[in-house]
UniProtKB/TrEMBL annotation:
This is Fe2OG dioxygenase domain-containing protein. GO terms for molecular function: metal ion binding. Residues 43-143 form the Fe2OG dioxygenase domain. It comes from the Eukaryota. InterPro entries: IPNS-like_FE2OG_OXY (IPR044861), IPNS-like_sf (IPR027443), Oxoglu/Fe-dep_dioxygenase_dom (IPR005123), Plant_2OG-oxidoreductases (IPR050295). PANTHER family: OXOGLUTARATE/IRON-DEPENDENT DIOXYGENASE. The keyword Metal-binding applies. It comes from Salvia splendens.
């Protein structure tokens, strides 16, 4: 294995460990057993996505990374110090400024589904910079592809009904990735489908 591969492998292992610690805390906050989310993940899936955004003198004419929410549970983002990430809150887009030496952690659709809507996935997009290249490395964490996902049973009993219907995780990813309209359309469609059944 090359030195670069060793570094990448170690990086992904360390990020996975951080994710598991956060999942433990979230499980406890939700009133679930400490290892609940980790157990739901099974072997889990970890996806690495690197993005390179060269400088653009006319950013208003470019196609950015379209607005979307991540399909997994948590995504860890690190970047090269050049701002470009925006998040949507109450229909308004806000710039997220880079903090040196830090990770930005996004909540994804899977965690919104599992928490029965208590945690909300973050809709976000990327913009380009007029003068500087932006590089981002995102590592997403989700359940194994064959898992059926849905709200945690104790949270359904607590809230009275499931906000999201069950679906196989790989099918959810396929629906989300094949949609021509991005944003949180796949998650909203799953919620609407469940509401029709109630």
């Amino acid at each position: 294995m090359s030195p670069v591969s060793n570094v990448a492998r170690e990086y992904l292992e360390r990020v996975w460990e951080m994710a598991m610690k956060i999942f433990e805390a979230i499980s406890e906050v939700l009133g679930l057993e400490k290892g609940y989310i980790e157990e739901c993940l099974g072997e889990g899936v970890q996806i690495l996505a690197s993005n390179y955004y060269p400088p653009c003198p006319e950013p208003h004419k470019t196609l950015w990374l379209a607005a979307h929410s991540d399909h997994g549970a948590l995504t860890f983002l690190t970047q090269n110090g050049v701002d470009g990430l925006q998040i949507k809150h109450h229909q308004t887009w806000y710039a997220v400024h880079h903090v040196p030496g830090s990770f930005l952690v996004n909540i994804g659709d899977y965690l919104e589904i599992l928490s029965n809507g208590r945690y909300k996935s973050v809709e976000h997009r990327a913009t380009v910079n007029v003068q500087r290249t932006r590089i981002s490395i995102a590592v997403g964490h989700g359940p194994q592809l064959s898992s059926f996902i849905g709200p945690a049973s104790p949270l359904v009993a607590d809230k009275g009904s499931a906000q999201y219907g069950p679906i196989k995780y790989k099918d959810y990813i396929q629906i989300q990735q094949s949609s021509t309209v991005r944003g949180k359309t796949a998650l909203l469609a799953l919620k609407a489908q469940q509401n029709e059944l109630i």
